[in-house]
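Appendix B, example 12.
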Amino acid sequence: MTKQIKFGVHFRGHWDTYTVIELEKFMECSEGIEPIELKDRYVDFLDKLSCKKIKPSTLVDVDVLKTFHDDVDNRVQIDYREDNLDPEYDYELIQGAKYWNTVLGKFTGHLKAHGVLK
């Protein structure tokens, strides 16, 4: 059995305008995740998260959390840190990514505290 820790963060801000849309994209882009068993568990996690069934106290496999962390970090890099979007046209996208960046900081700290990240 894979080691589990609590999810550790709330991930519900900008739900309709950003979060649920990006979670669906993560599911769509999961085909390259290997091994297939990790991909299946990751998609199951994303499905539960998008249905609001994952809470900070929910136990999640650490390899799934690491995969999720990497996806969120990549998305924040593209949508927020690179600062290449039009603030007027892409306002909701930028605000959602800004929220994710804040949560990512807390999530990273949580994963480091549990030895998942260095």
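The two ends are 22 Å apart (CA to CA). The longest helix spans residues 91-113.
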